[in-house]
Amino acid sequence: MPKTRYAISALAVACALASTASWAGTQSDTADNLTMYGITLYGTIDVGVSYQSHGSAFSDAAATNVNNFLIKASNKPNTSLASNGMSISTIGIKGREPLGAGWWGVFQFDTGFLPASMTLIDGTRSIASNNGVALADQKSYGDSTRAGQAFNGRAFVGVESPHYGALTFGRQSTLLNDEVCKYDPLSCSLAFSYVGFFGATAGTGDTEDRLLDGTLKYTLTDGLFHGGAMYQFGNARKLSSSRGTAYQVDLGITQGPWSVDGVLAHKDDAISVGGSLTAAQVAALTTPGSSTYGLPVDKTLPGTVSDNTSYTFLGEYDAGRPKFFAAYEHIRYANPTTPLPIGSQTIGGYFIVPSNSAFPRPKVLEVAWVGMRYALTPSLDFFAAYYRAMQNSYAKVSCSNSSSPQCSGHYDALSLVLDQHFGRHFDVYGGVQWSRVYDGMGSGYLQSGSFDPTIGVRIVF
After folding, report:
1. Is-contact 244 334, C-beta < 8 A?
2. Please, which residues have CB within 8 angstroms of residue 11's CB and are 6 or more apart in sequence?
3. Is residue 203 over pLDDT 50?
4. Residue 199's domain spans which residues?
5. How many CB atoms lie within 10 A of CB 236?
6. Which residue has the higher pLDDT, 379 or 7?
7. Rounded Cα gap, residues 280 and 275, in angstroms
8. What is the CATH number of the domain that holds 135?
9. Rounded-to-integer distance, Cα 314 and Cα 262, Å
10. pLDDT at 376 exceeding the cut of 70
11. Which one of 136, 236, 237, 458 is most buried, by most CB atoms within 10 A?
């Protein structure tokens, strides 16, 4: 494994164990963080133990090391160390410097890692490592916007003003991802939240698009109203590793205990990597005359290409100790207007064997959730959430069984979590989620349901 991955993880551990108060107290005016000369070092370390009644073996690249929710390869009972149960382990730097006339210059750079394996998160590698492996023998995997890049999280610069808002450019979390995690009672937890583990909800239909390269993003809060707009220069290859352009618009209102948002999002040439290459596809990579001949086995993946459009409505009611959440998203997938050729590259430098005609009719995925967060004591929080994802039948001939992934179906998930805080920088959590898949959404799955408890600790600095 590249030494840089170990170095980044080791640095995060060292920083978290350092005396943050003493360093900040002598080097900056900030009372409780790692700030020097206007630059703040920050991060999170989240590690625990997870059990899946139907799971897959430990992976040193998947975003949680294990499949906390039921996926196609979930099969056998599995207990192991796991990472990022409640939040993604991250190390980064950020800054905010005055420019004059009420304007500030801002920047932020960070990367996500796996403390249980001391490696960077690399979702695409977790899938590629299963190329040619039978489904029942595959290790845990999952597509991700984090693909082993040096800065697989945020990497942007910009300006902001309290009156005119913030304008930033670079690799950024999308407006949709921001709002989905804000209105998810579990804040996109990877171990307990369906919309956290399966990033399609926050990625306009595909996980790889939760964060986007080459984006111009504007946000503003003005009285009761807040919102923003963003655009991705996806066709400018020097600016973005993604194919196709994207745009998003968000409008929200906060009034007393109520907060609501609506987000419209669109992405051209979105790429979804739902699984690895079959043994036959791997063989074709080394077969002269094959359309995929010469592509590297460890860097090639099958990808479904589509043009996606979504609209999302989200709401929160803050009743004091309890907070209530609800949301609904409608995502439409259609075959791309600009098909991608074989060997097109996606994030992390991986090559794609594309499927440009996966949707005989437009696919519609609807995702809805309700939940609550309750402060049992000033330091102990209880979370409960129910998620449902539903797809229509987009086959040429409608169907509603598990004979094809194009048939209609749905996926249910229920989560219960307790989180005990010991000061600002340390907490211990434990919870359980149950997930079950039905009909077309479960086509090809080895199992139909799973019960998955997880416990862990989290350090924030």
Report:
1. no
2. 91
3. yes
4. 3-460
5. 11
6. 379
7. 14
8. 2.40.160.10
9. 6
10. yes
11. 458
pLDDT tens readout for residues 322-352: 999 999 999 999 999 999 999 998 888 899 9
What are the φ and ψ backbone dihedral angles of 24, each rounded to 5 degrees? -65, -40
Phi, psi of 8 (to 5 degrees): -65, -45
pLDDT of residue 38: 82
What confidence tier does 2 reach under pLDDT thresholds 50, 70, 90?
Answer: very low
For residue 13, pLDDT over 50 is answered with: no
pLDDT of res. 234:
73
Number of structural domains in the chain = 1
Q: Tell whether the model's pLDDT for residue 409 goes beyond 60.
A: yes
Predicted confidence (pLDDT) at residue 27 exceeds the cutoff of 60: no
